Automatic annotation (TrEMBL):
InterPro entries referenced in this protein's UniProt entry, alphabetically: OTU_Deubiquitinase (IPR051346)
Keyword DNA damage in record: no
Keywords, sorted A to Z: Coiled coil, Hydrolase, Protease, Thiol protease, Ubl conjugation pathway
Signal sequence, start to end: none
Coiled coil: 65-110
UniProt-listed Enzyme Commission number(s): 3.4.19.12
Protein name: ubiquitinyl hydrolase 1
Lineage: Eukaryota, Fungi, Dikarya, Ascomycota, Pezizomycotina
Any GO BP annotation: proteolysis
Gene Ontology molecular functions: cysteine-type deubiquitinase activity
Catalytic activity from the UniProt record: Thiol-dependent hydrolysis of ester, thioester, amide, peptide and isopeptide bonds formed by the C-terminal Gly of ubiquitin (a 76-residue protein attached to proteins as an intracellular targeting signal)
Major enzyme class: hydrolase
Length: 1033
């Protein structure tokens, strides 16, 4: 209690809490935190940052714990013993050294006869390579001893705190970790001046102490870590010069400088974290994209609890959205101003109708202002400053009067349902906070009236959806019905103490469960005007059902009429009269939220939490989840929720209740395959799993098509995945050839050549450097007798004419694939294709990947280490760049595109060797730097994200240089990439890229709102952190 928890809960004012019971819990938390803060001693150090302080919790706890004192004594006894052994080892080595040196002194060097002219037999004496005397000297000089490091600090308080962290009380550790999680993760406070450790030497890496840690250590968030290496892992851990060593040279004090480390954030906090402002931003209902400028009116941080002042609203009239009038914008902006007058502002708008309550923006504003808790009450009441006025009886009557009048105005207009959502919230807030019986009764009656209007609209939407033949319209109506059902159930979202009253109202249970069934059936396929707001309302519904569960279960088991009516409304054949007299029964725990009953021979289950209705274990009116979650469902039916019923089709389980794109559908499941049969008149189509054609056809024909077997024509129809139901489109068909007794894939005069045929293999082999075989389409045109070789992923096409051995390009007219693919540069680049028109007119095609990371452009040294191989991922490439090969001037010219220049520069750098290239007469590194430093590369207005990524890849070719050790900055450490030759890692790459980035940053004045400049700054920071010492020579 004496140590400050450092939790600042001021931001709890921004919490969005819909119920008084939530406010009560918040009030209790605030009181507890305030009492803890008052009890804390200000002079005591932090439990998160102050390690080894004489007044720290760990040191004080150690002083009162005999167990920890005994542990430290045991550690020191063992340390003394090991120190003595190390001293004895030093003494023995010194004796051995003296013995060897004495032998060296007393002996003479040995010689051997060396014949330096074998023809004439000339010899001379030379010093023996195996001289015994010199061997003694070598052995003496080679003697070394490993240092011994004391296990704990020589500072008594630090040693005590270290032992405390070794055996930290679990309760204290859990409290500290949880508090740190609250501060950093929940409240989002930031350690602005925290240090990220260069080294991580935590207690579990301490060879002498780690065995004392408990098993729960791996789950701890706050641990000890040293940014300084222990002596026994440095390059100084072995000592030579035995003759001059003393015990103090070998037995060293503990070098570790422990501090508290937050494992999750990987920082060593030095001071208390600061307010980040994240919580107020997270606790907000954001406006739809069309009204982003209105977001500021829902922002009520602790620093501005009253919101946006009216003067700022007037000054910001230019932000008025197009679908708002100026007067409405001003009223909208000022309605949420003033923490004590928010409800009065809303009451005034209800009376004057300046604001359109049917707009989603108004619903967001009402939700935010009514549910944000705001400032705590000065008098200590649960009702906070923002909501104190609602307690007043006269205000409660006035509010209910206005929303009752407003309900009458819109009760016949279904398009005004969002206004009812706001009215429902206002009525429930009044019911929650008022203490006057008359106001409570009136609020409850109003909720019944509002629920009746909503339920009437809900039934109207259900009827229209059932009669709709247009799939898109039906989906829209189901989405609207689901949101209307959520509005219905919101009228039940009251305090737990009011559930009994709510559920006793006429038809309350039936309406609640009918609405919940609609939500359960359609909630995953809803397309809302404001998806985030819909998700929030859905979560509120689920939370309400959980809170009401026990009382709802009691009501249903006592009187099941409401549940039976709800089930019958969704399943006309439901007949509970055939069940046992006991009716619905509850399953045993933990499945007691499921109720069961028999309807004829069918077993019916109902989930009171989710409103899921099962008949014989299957959902009614929609396909089971195993169908809807199947990988083929989304391509065929998008987000449509199909209403189904049992089918009499052999081998199938369900049939759709309505036609889908003119087809009667039947469904089944066989193993992992979903079976779909589509019937239209005399036409019958069976869905064929795409795996049937795997490795038999090019990938695009497998992955980009929906395959139907047409019984009438005895052929497989390949329809595009984007339009699987359009029958009159031009598509490929797999037909059975009676003469050859084989299947051929045709589209008009075009015939696909089999992947495994000799022709396809030979043609594919020519372009394998650019594309995988399964993505190459070889097609014979039976009319023109030409063979097409298409690479659809690269948007390339080639063709071979009859009686010709040349392969022509469709994109580059007059060009053919060159039989000589060597270009005299870019040696080792395997992903390329050379085309020619004449011996002197050649172009180079290089595939361009989506990303330029190491997984997209791969390189590695060859087995002979002569050069490296560079390959561009074929799965990543989406287009090609064409480069002209100018053999007269010895250069490669691009199209002028900046990205193409940077790509060829990067490839030059990767494929560089010590010898100049035959084409360019310079090395790859020199060619790459010439491009980077050229005026053409600097002549840009704005870099793209891809340009920045590629430039960063070029810069990272330079060696990484850093100080060693990092904290001393006395030596340089260079990290080389072993997969690249040294010339490819020239330091000038990083310097040139940095100059380009600096030039790009100057362009921000012309593009102030472009996000690419933030990406450029991040790239610069990464490069700086990777090359703390830059070689500019």
């Amino acid at each position: 209690m004496q140590y400050d928890h450092e939790l600042c809960i001021t931001e709890f004012q921004c919490l969005v809490l819909p119920l008084k019971q939530h406010m009560k819990r918040l009030h209790e938390i605030e009181c507890y935190f305030q009492s803890r803060r008052q009890a804390a001693a200000s002079h005591l150090p932090s439990v998160y940052r102050s390690f080894g302080h004489i007044s720290s919790f760990g040191v004080r706890y150690f002083e009162e714990s005999r167990e920890l004192q005994a542990t430290l004594a045991e550690i020191e006894r063992d340390a003394e013993s090991q120190r003595a052994q190390k001293c004895e080892e030093l003494k023995e080595l010194k004796t051995k050294y003296d013995t060897l040196m004495e032998q060296y002194t007393n002996m003479s060097c040995e010689t051997e006869t060396y014949v330096y002219n074998h023809r004439h037999g000339y010899t001379e004496p030379r010093h023996s390579r195996w001289c015994s005397r010199c061997l003694c000297k070598t052995q003496a000089d080679a003697l070394s001893i490993k240092i011994y490091e004391w296990p704990v600090s020589s500072n008594p308080q630090v040693a005590m705190a270290t032992v405390f962290e070794l055996k930290v009380p679990q309760a204290f550790s859990d409290w500290r970790d949880t508090s740190a999680y609250m501060i950093s993760e929940v409240l989002g406070h930031q350690h602005r001046h925290a240090k990220e450790p260069y080294y991580l030497y935590t207690l579990d890496k301490h060879k002498g102490l780690s065995q004392m840690l408990s098993q729960s250590y791996s789950r701890r968030r706050i641990v000890l870590s040293s940014d300084v290496k222990p002596y026994n892992v440095t390059h100084r851990k072995n000592k030579r010069a035995i003759r001059h060593l003393t015990e103090d040279d070998v037995c060293l004090p503990n070098a570790l400088q422990y501090a508290y480390l937050d494992i999750s954030l990987r920082v060593l906090p030095k001071e208390a974290p600061t307010y980040s402002g994240d919580v107020p931003k997270l606790c907000r209902y954001h406006m739809p994209r069309r009204s982003n400028a209105l977001d500021r009116f829902t922002y009520h941080p602790p620093s501005a609890p009253d919101g946006t002042p009216p003067n700022e609203v007037i000054a910001g009239l230019s932000d008025c959205p197009a679908h708002f009038s100026i007067e409405e914008y001003k009223a909208f902006g000022t309605m949420a101003f003033g923490s004590q007058i928010i409800y009065s502002n809303i009451l005034a708008q209800l009376a004057t109708s300046t604001i359109d309550f049917t707009k989603v923006e108004t619903q967001c504003l009402i939700l935010q202002t009514i549910q944000q808790v705001g400032l705590p009450s000065i008098s200590g009441d649960v009702e906070r400053v923002n909501h104190a006025v609602v307690v007043v009886e006269s205000f409660g009557h006035a509010m209910l009067e206005q929303i009752d009048t407003a309900l009458l105005r819109v009760s016949e207009n279904l398009e005004s349902w969002r206004a009812l959502a706001s009215f429902s919230l206002l009525a429930r807030r009044t019911l929650s906070l008022t203490q006057t019986p008359d106001v409570r009764t009136r609020a409850l009656d109003y909720l019944v009236k509002l629920r009746s209007v909503c339920f009437k609209w809900l039934k109207r939407l259900k009827t229209r959806a059932a009669s709709s033949t247009d799939n898109e319209q039906r989906n829209e109506l189901h989405s609207r019905a689901t949101e209307m059902a959520l509005l219905c159930t919101s009228t039940y979202d009251v305090e737990c103490t009011d559930f009994n009253i709510i559920l006793q109202q006429d038809s309350a249970v039936s309406v609640l469960l009918q609405s919940s069934i609609i939500i359960q059936e359609n909630h995953k396929s809803v397309q809302s005007e404001h998806q985030d707001l819909y998700d929030s309302l859905l979560l509120s519904h689920l939370a309400m059902m959980y809170r009401a569960f026990e009382k709802l279960r009691t009501f249903v088991l006592h009187d099941s009429k409401g549940l039976c009516d709800a089930v019958r409304a969704n399943w006309a054949a439901f007949d509970p009269s055939t069940a046992s007299p006991s009716g619905w029964r509850s399953l045993e725990q933990p499945q007691h939220h499921w109720l069961a009953i028999c309807s004829g021979t069918l077993l019916v289950h109902f989930n009171l939490l989710s409103a899921e209705l099962l008949v014989n274990g299957l959902p009614l009116a929609r396909l089971p989840s195993r169908f809807m979650q199947h990988k083929m469902y989304r391509p065929l039916f998008s987000k449509t929720t199909l209403e189904v019923m049992p089918t009499d089709e052999p081998g199938l389980e369900f049939s759709a209740q309505h036609l889908y794109h003119g087809y009667k559908l039947h469904f089944g499941m066989q193993g992992l395959d979903m079976l779909v049969v589509a019937v239209q008149g005399n036409s019958r189509l069976d869905l064929i799993p795409s795996r049937v054609f795997q490795d038999q056809l090019p990938h695009a024909f497998v992955a980009d098509s929906i395959h139907w077997y047409d019984h009438a024509s005895n052929e497989v129809v390949f329809r595009p995945r984007q339009s699987p139901w359009l029958a009159d489109i031009d598509c490929w068909r797999l037909k059975h050839d009676i003469l050859t007794k084989s299947w051929i894939l045709v589209n008009g005069p075009n015939v696909l050549v089999s992947l495994i045929s000799t022709s396809a293999r030979n043609l594919s082999k020519i372009v394998l450097s650019m594309e995988e075989a399964q993505h190459i389409h070889v097609v014979l045109n039976t009319t023109t007798q030409t063979v097409d070789v298409n690479l659809p992923r690269l948007q390339l096409g080639f063709f071979v004419e009859r009686n010709s051995d040349a392969i022509f390009s469709r994109q580059f007219r007059g060009m053919i694939i060159d039989s000589q693919q060597n270009i005299g540069t870019l040696t080792g680049l395997t992903s390329k294709l050379v085309l020619k028109k004449s011996p002197s007119e050649r172009i180079l095609l290089i595939p361009v990947p989506r990303k330029f990371g190491i997984s997209s452009i791969k390189y590695a040294k060859t087995l002979s280490n002569d050069h490296i191989t560079v390959a561009i991922s074929k799965d990543d490439a989406t287009k090609v760049y064409a480069y002209n090969l100018d053999e007269e001037l010895g250069r490669i010219t691009d199209s002028g595109n900046l990205e193409s220049k940077l790509l060829i520069s990067y490839l030059h750098a990767l494929t560089s060797s010590c010898l100049p290239d035959a084409l360019t007469k310079v090395t790859g590194t020199e060619a790459a730097l010439q491009i980077l430093q050229s005026a053409a590369v600097r002549s840009f207005d704005l870099l793209t994200y891809r340009n920045v990524e590629l430039l960063e890849r070029i810069a990272t070719l330079s060696t990484t240089r850093s100080f060693y050790p990092a904290h001393l900055q006395v030596m340089q450490q260079v990290s080389w990439n072993k997969r690249l030759p040294a010339l490819s890692q020239h330091p000038q790459f990083c310097v040139s890229v940095d100059q380009i980035f600096k030039h790009a940053a100057k362009m921000q004045i012309f593009f102030p709102a472009n996000d690419v400049f933030a990406v450029i700054r991040d790239a610069q920071e990464r490069l700086k952190s990777g090359t703390s010492i830059v070689d500019k020579s």
